[in-house]
């Protein structure tokens, strides 16, 4: 408490809950999460966001008139001055005996939607502007902060440089074309938008007259630009929002999400796999070591919800058990070809339990990935050496492959309950191989700057992308990706 007293007049509730300095005057502020009592005394559960736990405030009726006590509603913001005492009640070690309570902001009990009762996730998504005041979402968003900090800490300790890749770009790193266009044209007045006057494109929009002079979109990945940084600074990472215009309404997809994308010069595929395993274990350990109480709360929620599922749908481990299991075990590394062989020989395949077909050359679906992780190996899995035709143009082509089974030095990390959580590869450093691929896709001209890096001092290099929200899904045990980001952006939904 002393460390922050010179900055703030009030004391964080987290510090008060951990304090042993009883019978001392304290001053704090927060929101009422719960209230109970009688005509003689009111007990307020106060929370300021610093802890998953509320601190109990004891308000004696003799000190506070009836009109004030009627305003002690859930959701109201209050300032409390009183004495910190050792609590005799169950489930709490300290409480505040209040001398003064000031209402900073009222909350009408008839209108405030986040009352202390069970709410559905859908209801809370509809009230996303207020759901962070619940115990569940407070825990999730503190963990989101913790993991963000841990990511920067991990890379800083290993001499990676934080590389700010652009959000507005003319390139499509994935080559999928599923990007959001950005324009300065008045789209409400189509006739005012400049058109090409002649030639084969006559009548089409003249993008040279737009703000950037060419078609521009929100980034789908910072990878290509991060490669430029790695080929100058050695090791860099990007960490920021990315955007995909996919019309997907699933529990695993967002239109706006955050990506962590390190790129490393002089790293081959094995180096890349070693780094990603160490990185993921570091993040999980950091969360367990520093935000254990939040995870314990989410673990209890996970176990309760898991027990209500059909037997065949239940997870075999609790949340904390699963996280500690990942820390304790090496990730299983197998090739894509070996994985296909495992799937084809499985009883699951032979009994026709897979919805999607299994054969060499297909892009594995989530059901295949989860079978490998949860049923067969029962540990996180790194798949590598994927078929060339189902992977991006920038991935290094493996030599010596048999005709019809060309592969690239790609890798995916598969986690239980999630499926793919990381995708990466060794990048193609050979100009002739890379340009052959960009020629195939018709993007050589627009990626001239990317190809330049293969002309001047090219070296082997690798990198990967971690979907930040999928990591948080895994660590929190939540079932829907819309519940691990403050304001989910999905098709037909951009409120708040």
Helix content: 25-40%
Q: Specify the CATH architecture of the largest domain.
A: 2-Layer Sandwich
Number of helices: 15
Spatial order of the strands forming the largest sheet? 6-10-11-16-15-14-13-12
CATH homologous superfamily classification of the largest domain: Bira Bifunctional Protein, Domain 2
Number of strands: 16
Description:
This protein folds into two domains: 115 residues, Beta Barrel (OB fold (Dihydrolipoamide Acetyltransferase, E2P)), CATH 2.40.50.140; 310 residues, Bira Bifunctional Protein, Domain 2 (BirA Bifunctional Protein, domain 2). Helices cover 31% and strands 23% of the residues. It has an eight-stranded mixed β-sheet, with helices on both faces. Helix 5 crosses helix 7 and helix 7 crosses helix 9. The N terminus is likely disordered.
Task: Describe this protein with a few key phrases.
2 domains; globular; 15 helices; OB fold (Dihydrolipoamide Acetyltransferase, E2P); alpha+beta; five-stranded mixed barrel; eight-stranded mixed sheet; about 500 residues; BirA Bifunctional Protein, domain 2
Outline of this structure?
By secondary structure, this protein is an alpha+beta fold.
Question: Topology, please?
Answer:
Elements (H helix, E strand, L loop, with lengths): L1 H4 L7 H6 L5 E14 L3 E7 L7 E6 L5 H4 L7 E10 L7 E12 L15 H6 L8 H23 L3 E2 L5 E2 L11 E2 L33 E3 L4 H11 L1 E9 L12 E10 L3 H22 L1 H16 L11 H10 L3 E4 H10 L1 H4 L15 H12 L3 E7 L19 E9 L3 E9 L3 H11 L6 H5 L8 E7 H9 L20
Helix pairs in contact: 5-7, 5-8, 7-9
Organism: Bernardetia litoralis (strain ATCC 23117 / DSM 6794 / NBRC 15988 / NCIMB 1366 / Fx l1 / Sio-4)
Subcellular location: Cytoplasm
Family: Belongs to the class-II aminoacyl-tRNA synthetase family.
């Amino acid at each position: 408490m002393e460390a922050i007293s010179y900055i703030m007049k009030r004391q964080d509730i987290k510090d008060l809950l951990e304090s042993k300095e009883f019978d001392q005057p304290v001053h704090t502020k927060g929101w009422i999460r719960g209230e109970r009592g009688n005509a003689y005394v009111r007990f307020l559960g106060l929370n300021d966001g610093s802890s998953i736990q509320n601190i109990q405030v004891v308000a004696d009726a003799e000190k506070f008139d009836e009109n004030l006590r009627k305003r002690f509603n859930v959701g109201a913001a209050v300032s409390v001055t009183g004495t910190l005492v050792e609590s005799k009640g169950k489930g709490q070690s300290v409480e505040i005996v209040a001398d003064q309570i000031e209402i900073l902001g009222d909350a009408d009990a008839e209108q405030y939607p986040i009352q202390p009762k069970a709410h559905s996730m859908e209801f809370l998504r509809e009230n996303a502007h207020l759901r962070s005041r619940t115990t569940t979402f407070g825990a999730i968003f503190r963990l989101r902060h913790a993991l963000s900090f841990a990511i920067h800490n991990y890379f800083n300790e290993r001499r990676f440089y934080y590389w700010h890749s652009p959000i507005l770009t003319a390139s499509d790193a994935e080559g999928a074309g599923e990007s959001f266009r950005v324009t300065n044209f008045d789209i409400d007045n189509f006739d005012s938008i400049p058109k090409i006057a002649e030639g084969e494109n006559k009548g089409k929009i003249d993008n040279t007259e737009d703000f950037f002079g060419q078609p521009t979109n929100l980034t789908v990945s910072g990878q290509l630009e991060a490669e430029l940084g790695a080929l100058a600074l050695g090791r860099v990472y990007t960490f920021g929002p990315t955007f995909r215009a996919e019309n997907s309404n699933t529990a695993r997809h967002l239109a706006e999400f955050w990506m962590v994308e390190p790129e490393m010069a002089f790293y081959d595929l094995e180096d890349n796999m070693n780094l990603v395993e160490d990185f993921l274990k570091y993040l999980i350990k950091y969360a367990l070591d520093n935000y254990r109480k939040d995870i314990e709360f989410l673990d209890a929620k996970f176990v309760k919800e898991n027990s209500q599922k059909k037997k065949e749908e239940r997870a075999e481990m609790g949340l904390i058990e699963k996280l500690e299991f990942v820390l304790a075990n090496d990730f299983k590394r197998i090739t894509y070809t070996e994985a296909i062989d495992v799937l084809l020989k499985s009883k699951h395949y032979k009994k026709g339990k897979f919805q999607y077909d299994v054969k060499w050359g297909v892009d594995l679906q989530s059901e295949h990935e989860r079978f490998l992780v949860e049923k067969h190996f029962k540990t996180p899995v790194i798949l590598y050496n994927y078929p060339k035709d189902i992977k991006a143009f920038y991935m290094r082509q493996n030599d010596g492959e048999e005709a019809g089974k060309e592969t690239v030095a790609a890798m995916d990390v598969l986690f239980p309950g999630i499926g793919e959580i990381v995708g990466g590869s060794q990048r193609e450093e050979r100009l002739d191989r890379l340009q052959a691929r960009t020629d195939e896709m018709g993007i050589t001209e627009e990626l001239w700057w990317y190809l330049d890096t293969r002309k001047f001092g090219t070296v082997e290099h690798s990198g990967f992308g971690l979907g930040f929200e999928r990591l948080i899904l895994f660590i929190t045990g939540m079932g829907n990706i819309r519940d691990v980001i403050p304001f989910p952006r999905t098709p037909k939904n951009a409120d708040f």
